[in-house]
Amino acid sequence: MNKYGIWVVQSITYSLKVRNFASIACLGSLASDCRVKNIESERRWEEGQSLDGQKWKTLEHKGPLFPPEYEPLPKTVSFSYGGKPVSLSVAAEEVATFYAKMLDHEYTSKEVFQRNFFTDWRKEMTEEERDLIQTLSKCDFGEIHGYFLAKAEEKKALTKEEKQVLKEEASKQVEEYGYCYLDGHRERIGNFRVEPPGLFRGRGEHPKMGKLKKRVLPEDITINCSKDSNIPVPPRGHHWKKVQHDNAVTWLASWVENVQGSIKYIMLNPSSKLKGERDWQKFEIARKLKSKVDMIRRQYCADWKSREMKKRQRGVAVYFIDKLALRAGNEKEEGETADTVGCCSLRVEHITLHEKLDGQECVVEFDFLGKDSIRYYNKVPVEKRVFKNLKLFMENKIPEDDLFDRINTAYLNKTLNESMTGLTAKVFRTFNASTTLQEQLNKLTDADMSVQEKILSYNRANRAVAILCNHQRAAPKTFEKSMQLLQEKIALKQEQLDEAKKELKEARNQHKECSTDKSRKLVDKQEKRVKKLEEQLKKLQLQMTDREENKVIALGTSKLNYLDPRISVAWCKKFGVPIEKIYNKTQRDKFAWAIDMTEEDYQF
DNA sequence: AGCTAAACTTAGGAGCGCAAAT
DNA sequence: ATTTGCGCTCCTAAGTTTAGCT
């Protein structure tokens, strides 16, 4: 029975919820592990958004939702300069409140943050204010800070009923602005709110931290929707920057953000058909790599010996991307962003070569800041030829020089695409992540495990991927404390176990000396007790290991972006684990396409 | 071919609300 | 009843890739 048939049966119950995935399900059965092949459809899909690049036929929405207007502070709350209260203009006051609200944050103490803030703040001041307010250290935002703290308390102290009212108002907003109609289907919008003004805080040592992120007006916003639809109405007294009808793109609205000059978009939620199809397509490309990867690996190993330095660098770079799941590493404009790198942008200072290290030969020590200024630290033994090449690439360079000076991401991707249509650097991450999950699940799951043990295995497999992709998080603030608590629990359990063991021994001795029915029962009972305690202890210790190993590892990112959901769905089906144990509601919505189309024998 | 702008995916953290613990 | 812990949602920054231009 092919999957299309199954889909039709299921679609009777699914039609409301997943109606928009019918087309994906069909394509899925054709392109992947189906038995019936439809070459034409497959080709059409491979071309992806091609086929004239149309993303939709009709698109209707209400436009973005704007943040509330600024509410001036009560007269009783004042800002002070040099110890004297100063009444600020509305514009200057608003920016002052942004800073005042952040006073508890560590970064308001950073010099770059302060300088950027103060510079931008002064631009919002009136002439007189600018004359007066010349030094940040003379500014006292304390009262304003206190005012917002009190306000937060007030909000917390609202009655249940009042909170309920607020909640209902919020969901009304979602109802009204949170959805659009794409090709006639009601779809959830991802971010339907315009970003409110505030102070920019980049990640890591960002040179622009503290700069003023300005309020976005309707006049800044471009609306994208279909010609014949109800055009969104701008707020009273305002107009849109532009209304366009471009169905080659997926966004509903956009504006230029002032800090970095980049464009911000309003787009669909991951649960939408549009996003789901692309997600599905992403994993199909990664699966295609499976059949090509041996050839590609042979190719890049061969490149290590090339006479052309450019090819050698390419060979080593792709090797890193494949083996270590590094990101491509685009060039960045210096001084505009935090200093972070990926593969192609690695500098000599980011690696150290060790002929021998900890009993291993040809070890490369990586130490650099990657995306979001997350540190990548790894010691990796590599092939002799790679090692030699790295030495060569580093010759006559200073630490700040590029390691791969002859190549960039565009070149890399261009040659990858020649090996396989659709192949780019990031496909390796998807491919290796999903392959790892599949392997680990096969290895770690046993049919006769309890559901809980299976989930633990799943998390372990997930963690292997997160480690591969270097997905980190800050250790939870309460980590040490909760660990200690668990430790105490374990100690207690151990004590109980020791006690029980002693009692068992006694019971056995008694039984040996004088066997009665009663003494036998006692032995049995004690044996059971010991066994139970041992199990409980093991479970606690497992939990401890699990938590320890998860201390700085974030599982969510890989789960959401790198792991083919069909692997997880099939695993759940095969081992009788309810899907809810693996995916929460949001995740199930996002992966509806996979949940619907996957059978238990699916292999990535 | 190389550059920049635009489009889209991936990322960690803040904050909130709910449930478990005390 | 209150506090604490934790998962979920939202937020938006920071990447990659593609498109478009010269």
Automatic annotation (TrEMBL):
The protein's UniProt keywords, in alphabetical order, are: Coiled coil, DNA-binding, Isomerase, Nucleus, Topoisomerase
User: Which SUPFAM superfamilies does this chain map to?
Assistant: DNA breaking-rejoining enzymes, Eukaryotic DNA topoisomerase I, dispensable insert domain, Eukaryotic DNA topoisomerase I, N-terminal DNA-binding fragment
Q: Member of which family?
A: Belongs to the type IB topoisomerase family.
Compartment list: Nucleus
Q: Which residues form the active site?
A: 562
Under the heading Pfam families, the entry gives: Topo_C_assoc (PF14370), Topoisom_I (PF01028), Topoisom_I_N (PF02919)
Query: What's a single GO CC term here?
Result: chromosome
Q: Its catalytic activity?
A: ATP-independent breakage of single-stranded DNA, followed by passage and rejoining
Q: What top-level class of enzyme does the UniProt entry assign?
A: isomerase
Every copy of the DNA topoisomerase I eukaryotic-type domain together lies at: 199-576
List the coiled-coil residues: 149-176, 483-550
One annotated GO biological process: DNA replication
Q: What does this protein do?
A: Releases the supercoiling and torsional tension of DNA introduced during the DNA replication and transcription by transiently cleaving and rejoining one strand of the DNA duplex. Introduces a single-strand break via transesterification at the specific target site 5'-[CT]CCTTp site in duplex DNA. The scissile phosphodiester is attacked by the catalytic tyrosine of the enzyme, resulting in the formation of a DNA-(3'-phosphotyrosyl)-enzyme intermediate and the expulsion of a 5'-OH DNA strand. The free DNA strand then undergoes passage around the unbroken strand thus removing DNA supercoils.
The answer to whether the entry has keyword Secreted is no
Q: Which domain of life is it from?
A: Eukaryota
Q: Which GO terms describe its molecular function?
A: DNA binding; DNA topoisomerase type I (single strand cut, ATP-independent) activity
Q: Which InterPro entries match?
A: DNA_brk_join_enz (IPR011010), DNA_topo_DNA_db_N_dom1 (IPR013034), DNA_topo_DNA_db_N_dom2 (IPR013030), TopoI (IPR001631), TopoI_C_dom (IPR025834), TopoI_cat_a-hlx-sub_euk (IPR014711), TopoI_cat_a/b-sub_euk (IPR014727), TopoI_cat_euk (IPR013500)
Q: Does the keyword Transferase apply?
A: no
Protein name listed in UniProt: DNA topoisomerase I
Q: What EC number(s) has UniProt assigned to this enzyme?
A: 5.6.2.1
